[in-house]
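Title: Prediction job returns without error message
Component: structure pipeline
Severity: low
Priority: P3
Assignee: unassigned

Description:
Job completed but the reporter wants confirmation the result is attached to the right record. Sequence as submitted:
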Amino acid sequence: MSENNPENQNSEEKEESNVQESETTESPEKEQEVKTKFTFKCTRCDSCCLSRGPIPITFWDLEMWAKNGVVANFMPYLDIYQKPDGSIDLILKPLPPPKEEEGANLQQDPFATKPIEELLEVKCSLYNKEDKKCLIYDNRPLSCRTYPLEFDGKNFIVVDADCPGIGEEGMSKEDLIQMRETAKTMHYELTRMRIALPVLNQIVSSNFMQMLMRQQMEAMSKMSDDDKSKLDEIFKKQEPEHDHEHDHDQEP
């Protein structure tokens, strides 16, 4: 009789319904866990620091350095890099290996520098290879903090699939959330920099050229007539010979 009791039947249906509801409420978390296959733990292998090449710098980095009073320490390493796609980045520029510097003939041109394109796989200039130590770890840029995970505005991307830290155990859920947030911040800050930098670069270049012209005009105004004539002679000697030949060809 109890097997056919409607009350028992209703209670069994309620239990089944509760189980289904509990499975439904847990499934998004389970799906999230299945999707979250990315785990990372830095193994201190130093492979990324030995071949990072130019490291993009953001306003976040500059503000952090200013707050910590270390901006001047980074100035020798900062440079502007115009990438092949036309975009401009402020970067920490890698320094050429010492042997290459010794072999280079820099005496002919005191302003000669090695093109950044030839330093794309050179170690970070602020990494001590012998001690396997980052010299600026507490002030390292966002790009280093989020490596090898990046965010393109829609998806998270692993930019170095060969990094030995990928797949290592020890990453907590909080660590993953923090790394994702850092990657999002990097994307946002890098976008800000790439929008602002070309404008700032053009303004600074224009002001610099105007300053040079003013300085040249002031210097010329202070020169004597004798010095001006000597300068004219120097410029005439530097004129290409083919220009003079072309002038003679046009004579009747």
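Comment from assignee: result matches the submitted record. The two ends are 130 Å apart (CA to CA).
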